[in-house]
Amino acid sequence: MEKKFDRQEVVDYVRRAIDDRASWFYLLTKEARNAGVNPEEIARKAIFQFGCMKGDKLAATAELQEFINQFASEVSKGVFQMEVKELAEDKAVLEFNYCPLVECWKRLGADSQELDRLCDWAMEGDRGVMQNFPAINMDIASRIGAGETCCRLVFTKKQN
Q1: CA distances from 103 to 18, 25, 54, 114, 118 (A)
Q2: Partners of 140 in the β-ladder
Q3: Predicted pLDDT of residue 7
Q4: Hey, which residues does 138 pair with through a beta bridge?
Q5: What is the Cα 127 distance to its own chain's centre?
Q6: Is 99 helix (H, G, I), strand (E, B) or coil?
Q7: Which residue ranges in the chain fall short of pLDDT 50?
Q8: Running DSSP on this structure, what letter comes out for residue 145?
Q9: Fewest C-beta atoms under 10 Å: which of 108, 126, 136, 160?
Q10: Which pLDDT score is estimated for 19?
């Protein structure tokens, strides 16, 4: 008989997967620096491409509410302790109160400057996702990796 997983088991599993991804990303960028290579340009481009690939998997829409329903899935809400603070036809606000990436980087010894930098690079994924939604703007109002208490993303419909 197939085991059914409850929501928390799925959230924990996804967090562990993100922790793995954050670990190798951190170590890869650290080794690049140790070898005298600046990883920023490569990291930003690769993560942006990854975001575009993720965005391709979402249904195209110009409607903000439809987009948020996809972007803020139930699993994502659990993994990132995400709250939909506002959801209207022309504006949506999401707050992420936990970041498994940042928690991993802290555990691996990243200082505040590294956290800020790595977090900003990781946000390229979200910027890439948005390339598939040209009718919607995304503003990153705050980031946990920059020392804020939450990541706050504000989405607005573009004006014609």
Answers
A1: 10, 13, 23, 12, 12
A2: 153
A3: 84
A4: 155
A5: 9
A6: coil
A7: none
A8: G
A9: 160
A10: 96
CA distance linking residue 34 with residue 113, whole number of Å: 17
* Contacts for 120 with CB less than 8 Å, ≥ 6 apart: 143, 145, 146
Domain-wise residue ranges, the chain = 7-157
User: Whose structure tokens read 């020392």?
Assistant: 147
Residue with tokens 């573009």: 158
Question: What pLDDT was estimated at residue 4?
Answer: 84
Token pair listed for 78: 């659990």
Amino acid at 143: R
Closest CA to 103 of 88, 89, 92, 118: 118
Distance CA 156, CA 9 (A): 33
Q: Which two tokens stand for residue 35?
A: 């070898």
DSSP H or E run through 155: strand 151-157
Tell me which of 1.10.3720.10, 3.30.530.20, 3.30.70.270, 3.30.1380.20 is the CATH number of domain 7-157: 3.30.1380.20
